[in-house]
């Protein structure tokens, strides 16, 4: 597990492109047959991916967590952006299809990831945060029929925003949030831009009591996303390619524009789960 420390905005304004990418960009997450993880001191979030190939992959705590097992004092959210897969949590098996997800609560000891077909492996992307209480482990589906252990995303948590004229027509699908899938602090969801739209989270904002990690995907090889970060009057950018993630501190904006439409997963950690706690930034304030 790679470990990264927090960064001050006073220092970040002096970073070179290479240093900015080194501190905040997460590359090479989806490696067949491996579990890759980055631990950030910013709200202690772990960003990772498991890509099981021929054999199942077992999630372990590693020396970095100083824990008996990964979720001894943590919770995690997972969204599969690959082929159909299976997650086994303490002996219970969950079939997780493309763009379906899971919440796994604190105290679950044994977690394994496998793919239905090794030729089209699952790509389990996950965020994990510290936890103080155990909430139920559930499978999360954007569509379908509710059943025991399965949560279907509510209609009110599928939000259509923006317009094609403003180049930001997008649909936000909220997976983990209060009132649908309870957690200690973790929230996760997915935003898909419609063809012809390229902007996300614009007009932009900050929120001092929680940070975010974005995973950009569904980006063709010759395309890219410009991820904008930094203080509103000291913005910086990172060029993002397919299936790369970026860490966004609470003091930073977190917005993007692509050379064409794309999809991204957002994960939040911090003391507040209120979506309306943001401090809006007017476009005229950006520098």
UniProtKB/TrEMBL annotation:
Database matches in InterPro entries: KduI, KduI/IolB_isomerase, KduI_N, RmlC-like_jellyroll, RmlC_Cupin_sf
Keyword hit for Isomerase: yes
Cofactor(s) needed: Zn(2+)
EC annotation from Swiss-Prot or TrEMBL: 5.3.1.17
Domain of life: Bacteria
Cofactor binding mode and count: Binds 1 zinc ion per subunit.
Binding locations of Zn(2+): 205, 207, 212, 254
Record's function text: Catalyzes the isomerization of 5-dehydro-4-deoxy-D-glucuronate to 3-deoxy-D-glycero-2,5-hexodiulosonate.
Encoding gene per record: kduI
Molecular functions per Gene Ontology: 4-deoxy-L-threo-5-hexosulose-uronate ketol-isomerase activity; zinc ion binding
Family: Belongs to the KduI family.
Keywords noted in UniProt: Isomerase, Metal-binding, Zinc
Keyword Zinc: yes
Name of the protein: 4-deoxy-L-threo-5-hexosulose-uronate ketol-isomerase
HAMAP family attached to this UniProt entry: KduI
Cross-referenced Gene3D superfamilies: Jelly Rolls (2.60.120.10), pectin degrading enzyme 5-keto 4- deoxyuronate isomerase, domain 1 (2.60.120.520)
Enzymatic reactions: 5-dehydro-4-deoxy-D-glucuronate = 3-deoxy-D-glycero-2,5-hexodiulosonate
Pathway: Glycan metabolism; pectin degradation; 2-dehydro-3-deoxy-D-gluconate from pectin: step 4/5
Organism listed in the record: Blautia argi
Any GO BP annotation: pectin catabolic process
